[in-house]
Amino acid sequence: MGVTMEITTQIVTDFRAYYPEFGDVALWPDSGVITALAEGDAETGKRWGIYPDGRVVSIKKRGMFAFAAHRLVMRKRSAGGDVGAAYAISGKSVGDESTSFAVPSVTMDDLTINGDLPLTAYGVEFMRLRRRAGTGGLMI
């Protein structure tokens, strides 16, 4: 089992600076951000490298932040919060307000490996970074 890092106020500040859409503390309280960042740390094991001090942006920091952002959005959605469409819009009509979404088809293997990650842009970014970190589809 790996050692988890302490999620400091500086890490929360760095996350909010990297993803300014999470800057509203009333909408995205520190407690939820800290929990999501801790989950992001746990999902980015030693193959991801270290979380750097200062302004350096590493694959560990980017992966941790992307996973945290994904978790925050998914929690808000599950609580009934409106944080935008889960999928890309493929068509839209104004008369009678019709909207079509590009829903990806997934296999059971996709669901087992990726869970709900494909449902947000942040989750997709995390999957891309996970591949670059050399973990392939494995969750470490």
From TrEMBL:
Protein name (record): DUF4054 domain-containing protein
Upper taxonomic lineage: Bacteria, Pseudomonadati, Pseudomonadota, Gammaproteobacteria, Enterobacterales
Organism in which the protein naturally occurs: Kosakonia oryzae
